[in-house]
Amino acid sequence: MAALGALRSCWAPARLLTGSAHHSNRLVLCQQTSIKRHFSNNKILVELDEATGVAVMKMKNPPVNSLSLDFLTEFSITLEKLEMDRGCRGLILTSASPKIFSAGLDIMEMCGKSAEHYGEFWRAVQEMWLKLYGSNMVTIAAINGSSPAGGCLMALCCDYRIMADNPKYAIGLNETQLGIVAPFWFKDTMSNVVGNRVTEQALQLGQMFPAPEALKFGLVDQLVPEEKVQSTAASVMAQWLTVPDHARQITKSMMRKQTTDKLVNNREADIKNFVSFITRDSIQKSLQVYMERLRQRKQ
Ligand SMILES: CCCCCCCC/C=C\C/C=C/C(=O)SCCNC(=O)CCNC(=O)[C@H](O)C(C)(C)COP(=O)(O)OP(=O)(O)OC[C@H]1O[C@@H](n2cnc3c(N)ncnc32)[C@H](O)[C@@H]1OP(=O)(O)O
């Protein structure tokens, strides 16, 4: 992946040069009709604006955008497609249904299934993280709702986070509240954003930060009124895209490579570790109790 990234980086200046001439032609056209390509499937809606090179990816997996095996597979395929598309330089990740950005990993995928299934599921979680955290595109999370655990991880993978200014929405890695443990690469991703001390405390407590607290601790970069989340993401993206791709990409890779390499070099061991952890009776029991609590809360 790193080698492919470097190759893309080397090509980026040429791509930028031809891209800008190309884009300015398009821009003229765009004043009459905006050129938007759609790559949607039943879980993910993507709209790529060819004039700006920005794709908006909306997660659509009702009721709570949980990250099931099917969803993660679609997500990684879509991201790969955009990554390979020379017309796409930026990605805005958001939810198709406000109030929930993503409820994190689908707990049902981790309950009462076979060891083989857990292995396949965990590989898909790893793949999503490697692709999103390692993306060469500018990535912005437009967090238009709550975002626990795996949902928070997705947001933390992005280069910039804009959250709806609503204290009812919360974000955080709450794994310990479920009786499970955030893996080292979840921990590293958070620590790279907010630092070791905040991460250590937040992870032990399984803390969910309401939006204003999330801003205070640097878990998100900006809070804006709910109706402005998308437009703010678009204008922040436009600023980031003024930086030449190759320089920004090499810098991003330099900052993140050590973290991604740790998983790349230990993928199989990490899967084995997950399977042996999640198949423990005590862990299965904790997850069942947590799901039951969720259902009761609803009643
Ligand atoms: C020694 C080291 C070993 C290392 C081993 C590593 C192990 C690590 C393993 C895993 C890491 C885990 C990461 C995760 O992401 S776990 C998921 C954590 N997510 C949560 O805790 C979120 C729980 N959900 C909520 O808090 C709320 O549902 C909400 C705020 C997202 C939405 O609230 P609301 O709008 O009120 O909706 P409901 O609560 O009514 O939910 C609707 C419906 O959806 C179900 N549901 C919610 N979340 C999930 C989920 N994550 N997975 C599956 N299903 C979910 C909920 O139960 C309701 O279902 P219904 O009753 O059938 O309608």
Description:
This protein has helices at residues 2-32, 69-84, 115-133, 150-157, 184-194, 196-205, 211-216, 229-240, 245-264, 267-278, 281-298, and strands at residues 36-38, 44-49, 54-59, 90-95, 99-100, 138-143, 145-148, 160-164, 170-172, 209-210, 222-224. With 299 residues, the chain is of the alpha/beta class. It has one domain: 2-enoyl-CoA Hydratase, Chain A, domain 1 (Alpha-Beta Complex), CATH 3.90.226. The strands form two sheets. A seven-stranded mixed sheet has the order 1-2-3-4-6-8-11, with helices on both faces. The chain has a four-stranded mixed sheet with strand order 5-7-9-10. A hairpin with a 5-residue loop joins strand 1 (36-38) and strand 2. The radius of gyration is 19 Å and the shape is globular. The termini are far apart. The relative contact order is 0.13. Residues 1-32 have low confidence and may be disordered. The chain binds ligand LUC3G6IP. Ligand LUC3G6IP binds at residues 63-64, 66, 100, 103-108, 146, 148-150, 174-175, 178, 180-181, 183, 273-274, 277, 294-295, 298.
What is the percent of helical residues? 40-55%
Strand tally is: 11
Small molecules in complex: ligand LUC3G6IP
Question: Quick one: overall form?
Answer: globular
Describe the main β-sheet briefly: 7 strands, mixed
The tally of helices reads: 11
Under CATH at level 1, the class stands as Alpha Beta
How many structural domains are formed by the residues? Answer: 1
- Looking at this structure, what is the CATH superfamily? 2-enoyl-CoA Hydratase, Chain A, domain 1
Output mean pLDDT. 90
CATH topology: 2-enoyl-CoA Hydratase, Chain A, domain 1
Order of helices and strands: HEEEHEEHEEHEEHHEHEHHHH
- Low-pLDDT residue intervals, each spanning 5 or more residues: 1-32
Structural class computed from helices and strand pairing: alpha/beta
Kindly report the spatial arrangement of strands forming the biggest sheet.
1-2-3-4-6-8-11
Amino- and carboxy-terminal Cα gap: 47 Å
CATH architecture title: Alpha-Beta Complex
